[in-house]
Amino acid sequence: MSPPQSRALDRSAFLLAARGEPGPHTPVWFMRQAGRALPEYHAARTGTTMLEACMRPDLVVEITLQPVRRYGVDAAVLYSDIVLPLKSVGFDIEIKPGIGPVLADPIRDAAGLAAVRPVTPADVPYTTDSVQQLVSELDGTPLIGFAGAPFTVASYLVEGGPSKDHAKTKALMYSDPGLWHALADRLADVAIAYLSVQVEAGASAMQLFDSWAGGLSPRDYERFVLPHSAKVFEALASYGVPRVHFGVNTGELLGLMSSAGADVVGVDWRVPLDEAVRRITAAGAGPKPVQGNLDPALLFAPWEAVEPEIDRILAEGKAAPGHIFNLGHGVPPDADPEVLRRIVQHVHAKSARVPA
Length: 356
Known about the structure:
The protein is α/β, with parallel strands linked by helices. It contains 15 helices and 9 strands. The chain has helices spanning 4-10, 13-18, 39-44, 50-54, 57-71, 84-88, 125-138, 150-159, 167-175, 177-201, 218-236, 254-259, 273-282, 303-317, 337-351; strands at 76-77, 93-96, 100-103, 143-148, 205-209, 243-246, 264-266, 290-294, 323-327. The protein has a 7-stranded parallel β-sheet with strand order 1-4-5-6-7-8-9. Helix 10 packs parallel to helix 11 (218-236). The longest helix is centred in the middle third of the chain and has 25 residues, at 177-201. It starts with a helix and ends in a 5-residue tail after the last helix. The model has no long low-confidence stretch (mean pLDDT 95).
C-alpha cells in the first residue's frame, strides 16, 4: 500500500491532467516561476551568481518553494538551468545578466566533441540533494525536473551564446551532418542522464525545453532534431512519469514535436490550444494533453483584459484530454507577482469541477 503522500501526489491536479484524467480543476504553473520576478528570490540570491545558486541545495530548495508559497501553483519546478549539466562536466560557461549563457570556447569542429560527455550523479550531487529535500518539503505538490533538448543546448555550444538566427548552428548541420548528429547524440545522453538524476531523486514529472527549435523548418527539424529528442523521451519512458515537450514559435512543429514521444505538448501563445490539438492529432501523434498558453505580455495589461483571455484559453483547452494552464513562455523578470497569484486563483475558481 502506497504511503498517504504518494497517493496524494498521484491524485494531484497536475499529474491527473498530464495523464489526461479529470481532476478537481485545471492545474497551473508558470515557466520561470522560480526566481526572476520575485523580490524574495533576489534577496536570497544576493552576492551569488545564478549557476552558483543552482549548485547550493539550500538556495535551490528555498527558491523553488517561493512561488509555491506565494502563488499556490499546482506544481513546483526545480530551480536550475539547462546549461548546468555542461558546467558540471567542465565547460567554461557562465550566465551573464541581460545576455544569457556564454561559452568561452564554442564547439565548431570534431576536436571540441570530446568534451561532451554524459552527466553522472557524482557530477551533480547538489541536484540529487536539492530534489530529495524538495520532495520531502512539498508535501504532495509535484516537482517538475527539466533539461535542455539537444538542439537548443547545441545552439549555445556552437554559437557560443544566445543567437537570433542560429546561423552557425544551421551551417554546421548542413556542412557537416556527421559532426552535427554526433554532437546532438551526445547531448541527448546528457539530457537523459540529468533527467534521470532528477527523477530518481524524486521528481514526479519532467520537461524537455527545446526553446529555439522554432527557428527550424519542419524538414530540418525532422532530419536534424527529431531523432535526438526522440532518443531522450524513449530512454526515459520506463520511469512512468509525465514527459512534457516545449518550444517557442513551434506552431508548425507541434505534430513533429509530439511524435518525438512527449506525453504533454507545450504550446506557446501563437497557436490557440484547440488548433494545437488539431495539429497534434492530424500528425498521428495525439490527441494528447497540452500545456499553455497565455501570452506573457498580458501580465502587464489591466486585469479586465487578462481575465477574458484566461477564460478563452480554458475553453480552448477543453479540446485536449488534459490541460495544464501556463504562460506561452517564461515569466518576464519585471512581471507583477500579484498578477500571477490572481491568475492562479481565477483558473482554479473558473475551472473547479463538482465531484461526481
